[in-house]
Amino acid sequence: MSITVETYATLAEATSAMRDKTQFLGGGTMVVRGINYGAQDYNRVVRSTDAALRGIRNEGNQISIGAGVTMSQIMASSSTDFLAPVARLVGGPAIRNMATAGGNLFVRPPYGDFGTALLALDANVQMSDGQSLPIERFYAQRDSQRGIVAAILLPRPAHGVFRFRKVTRTKPKGASVLSIAATLPGGSRITEARIAFGAMGPTPLRAKEAEQALEGASLDATGIQRALDTCLNGLDPSDDSLASGWYRRAVAPVHLRRLLLGKES
User: Fold this and answer.
1) In the CATH scheme, what is the code of domain 162-261?
2) Which end of the chain is less enclosed by CB atoms within 10 A, N or C?
3) pLDDT at residue 61, rounded to an integer
4) Furthest-apart CA atoms within the chain: distance in Å
5) Ranges in the chain, pLDDT < 50
């Protein structure tokens, strides 16, 4: 099957060009692979050279990351230094030079670690048609989403509040058995925690009962126990070549414990 590729100077023009059996091309790590493997669900590819897609901007107490910003750009920018450890774990150097922040929102498990971090950070997804969607809502309707992601807007967390952990069989760049991201505001007593798991469902998912269990708790073995006991509620891991759903459920509380207590292993 032949593929038609169209390039537009602005994101607005690219958005207008989207229709059935059309795929938007960002970095290409997944779309081009799909083409190489004979993808049948699209025969037309649209891309845009709009410079706004590649920008990282500070907007007050928030950061705007263009959907076309690569993992390498995330690592190099002082504005996104708190996300650099996450971006560094996305594939090898060649992949990080191509993989984009916006594209990571659409990949399927066991990929999508960057999106897991954005869910824990309470990001908003800015669409090319002007909509601004809380990231949890975006994920809930992702498969029916026809628009193009323009940017991701997120608050910059206070120092030490954001944590991330990736569990993989091939370090440092393997696909995820699972990943966990958390924002833990509040100092000695946690308030308004957000915990997100990747590869524990069809999209990154929040562990809301664990978040509630951490409200007012201290980050010690006793304080986090109720969160560990409830962290699997609402998660739905599947089997794949890396791990079974059973295994993912068995090890998720172990790795959440290590993340919350700040332990490397």
Assistant:
1) 3.30.390.50
2) C
3) 87
4) 60
5) none
